[in-house]
Fold these 2 entries.
Entry 1:
Amino acid sequence: MGGSVDLMRRTFPDEVDDALARYPVGREASAVLSLLYLAQAAYGYLTDEAIAEVASTVGLPPTHVRGLAGFYTLLYERPTGGYVIHFCTDLPCALRGAEPMLDRLCAKLGIEPGETTADGLFTVEAVMCLAACDRAPMMQVNLEYYEDLTDERLDEIIADLRERASSSALRRPPLGFGPPSEMALDSPAEARGIDGHRQGDDA
Ligand code: FES
């Protein structure tokens, strides 16, 4: 196992301290999920080094931390695009045209569901219900919901995401996810659009 094992701490020193400070001394293990998101944001995905750093930070065995991460769909154990699109194809969304919409999206991006675009910007995955059936069809991009989708709206969203990634405010394309907390404008986390905003509310 090579590479740095303190990248999370070096990238997000204040956020790591804040996550640990939420729990009493001796209960640092309770911060493991927050730290996994931070580690993912720092390393791009949950590499062995990322898991090792989280494990040593909270005093748990790496195998325990790896096992925990496996339960969460927003924690990635393989490289992903900067924007991970979870496109809902469950019944209510399917009844409102989700499947042909997903096919069209994948064709537009030149990938199949489960794949990442060559530029590393988008990963698309078909997923089950995301609990926004009243505004089907819908998708989740990183931590943001986009609802009441149409082909035209989807085109606009993809164009907007590309624009955000190429913005001069961003030093590099977004990688994975970060924690749901405020960070500096030019931090990698900024690129991930982490504000929990339901984008469909803008429509
Ligand atoms: S079926 Fe798509 S959000 Fe519920």
Note: DSSP finds eight helices and four strands in the chain.
Entry 2:
Amino acid sequence: MAKRMTDTDKYKKRFVRGLPGAYKLLWDYLYHDCNHAGIWHVDFEIAQIYLGADMPVDSKTALELFNADEERVIVLDEGRKWFIPKFLEFQYGQMNPRNRVHLSVLKALMVFIENPAVKPLLSPFLGAMQGAKDKDKDKDKDKEQEKEEREREKEKLNKEKEREREKKIGGSGGKLRLFPIPGKSCCKCRMPAVYKAVGEFNHYYCGEHMPAQVKEKYDA
Ligand SMILES: [Zn+2]
């Protein structure tokens, strides 16, 4: 259930006072049954059920009465919808596109922007709405920049890792690097050993004395 504002002076107003009872009721009903954008989906059959059989109303008379001295109802969509501009003025006061509810109201009405009766109502907001949209775009831009920065950061990290790996294997495209084996020395020269002969018990070699085929592949 939506709660709406009501005007305590409503029934004192010349316009409402002058309406026949059934249309007074219909006018009040429209304020309750229209959507948040002041648009009523015209359905007199249902309206009649709610108003009661002793309050007969019809579309033609309603428009004549409601629009007698000013356009209180703007007929849209070939009569399928009625727009009540005063509803907006009354419920929301000064429309402000930065207000989320107001913005959704304005968007609901945008589809009728080509209607000569609606256009002048909306045009003051178009500029402000454009401004709000640009702001959104700026936000998107910020997000994109953030993403790019993250990508760059990631790339940097990857490159660092790559370099780290290259250092370990003695340079990209170069030979793999061997490191001194703790506590072991070459069996030929007693220099720190970097290579243990496969299958030979306790045969450690330094970079210089390791087998030729090992030297081909590794740096010490
Ligand atoms: Zn040696």
Note: The first helix runs from residue 14 to 17.
